[in-house]
Amino acid sequence: MNQIQQKALRTLAQQVIDKLSLRRNNRELLKINQQLTATNSKLRETEERLNKANTDLTESKERLQTILDLVVEGIVITDREGKITYTNRRNREIFKMDEKRMLTLTNVSPEFNNRTLDGSPLPQEEHPVTIALQRGATTINREFLVSDQHSNSVYLRMNAVPIRDHNEMITGAIGSFADITDSYFLQQKLKEREVSLRAAISSANLGTWHMDLQTKELFASARMKELFGFYQDEQISYKSVIGQIAESHRKKVIAIAEASLRQNEPSELEYPIIGYHDKKLRWLCATFYAYTDPENPNIFFFAGTTADITERKMEEQRRSDFIGMVSHELRTPLTAIKAYTNLLQRIAGKNNDKMLVSTMEKVDTQVKRMEAMINGFLEVARLGEGKIRLNITRSDLASLFKIAEEDSLVTINSHKVIFAPTETTPLDVDQDKIEQVLINFINNAVKYSPPGTTIEVSCITKNGMAQVYVKDQGMGIPIADQPFIFDRFFRVESDAMKDKKGFGIGLYICKEIIERHHGKIGVESTEGQGSVFWFSLPVSII
């Protein structure tokens, strides 16, 4: 084989080798391309998941931002040094500061002017966020003062907790707080009122008590125990207190207390008690009212006060006894005077002695006035002893109006008394006593109104009650005196009343009569413009 052939053979061999290498490289390149395609596919999937995660994270952040902006409390997040990194909308509203400005501050920046409730500077280490950052402790309901951007003081109630990483290292803190300025001042007012109330109770020497309606446990003040004859260190119960009430009043007290609970309305009444240890008779004026625990509306309490009115009751009893005794003693000579007056009237009539007849008529008028006064005193005495009796019969209010109108025509010539037409109105009442009330109202209107003025008497029926009104154009009653106008022996003290005679028992008797008929009585008056006295009685079912 010559050189040319050898060279050709080597060239051919090299070409075969190159082709084989190329084929092998092509196979490797194909394999690499396939791997690269798979890798690119995985990268695209990863990129899509990453984009989706970023989108979800952005949406979550926006949702969280929306939620935090809707909460009623301010939210602040700080880093490890206390620098504010997040603030919600309520936070900025409380401090009246924009977000950009807020994010330049720390929890103890001078702009906040952190102070204790007494106004002194709040030490940095006592700030709830600082406590969370430095001690890793949680603070609950810490109250302190701050200032908003306009230097207005704001009372805050704040909670703060530390933020920790996976290694339990503190990386920041979260604080939530509420503006309690209004409630703080309200609470202060309530405390002041409570202090004033306690001072009033102490000065009035009142006993106080309250009872848990679930457990029936009774809590009584020292004065309350003293009034009921218990020792101050002695534990007392509802049953033991009720047991000291005089048997004559016990059922009534229990009934009124239960009604007060059912109707959720305060009540007041007077009753006698016998002291548990000292056996002393005392009269008490007691109040009852129900309320719920402000911190737990499901817990109910029954509470009240008691005042010792023994001296007043004894004085009233002595006065009633005296009035009753004197009235009885006066009736005997008055009866004799009346008899002699009638005799002299007849003699003067027979002798046609006009002067004596006129004189005897005046004497008879005074005798009748004295008799009415004595009867009033006796009525008061009977009321105080609970001996007044009602003769209940079916009556007609229209008939009572007619009787009162006829009486007015005969006895009243100084005023114009107008009776409004009244329909038939059946009542189950003591007719004489209701007539007495109506006549008393009319006579008072005459007594306290200028001559020549008009007195209007009317009646309407509403919600099953007959309501009677007597309206005058008189001097009226001062507002301060109106709550007491029906009290026994009460009289308005004024220059206009100096020439008006009376003992303050007429309206008291009227009140007792109406209330014993299960009715109501009252007055509406403007000083200098007249008064409207009224009473209402249940209409009977025909």
TrEMBL record:
Q: Which Pfam families match?
A: HATPase_c, HisKA, PAS
PANTHER family hit by this protein: SENSOR HISTIDINE KINASE GLRK (PTHR42878:SF7), TWO-COMPONENT HISTIDINE KINASE (PTHR42878)
Q: Where is the Histidine kinase domain?
A: 325-541
Enzyme Commission (EC) number: 2.7.13.3
Question: According to its record, how does it sit in the membrane?
Answer: Multi-pass membrane protein
Recorded GO MF terms: ATP binding
Q: Which reaction does it catalyse?
A: ATP + protein L-histidine = ADP + protein N-phospho-L-histidine
Which keywords does the record carry?
Answer: ATP-binding, Coiled coil, Kinase, Membrane, Nucleotide-binding, Phosphoprotein, Transferase, Transmembrane, Transmembrane helix, Two-component regulatory system
* Enzyme class at the top of the EC tree: transferase
Can you give the residue ranges of the PAS domain? 60-103, 193-264
Q: Which domain of life is it from?
A: Bacteria
User: What is the recorded name of this protein?
Assistant: histidine kinase
Cellular localization per UniProt: Membrane
Q: What is its main location?
A: membrane
Species name for this entry? Chryseobacterium formosus
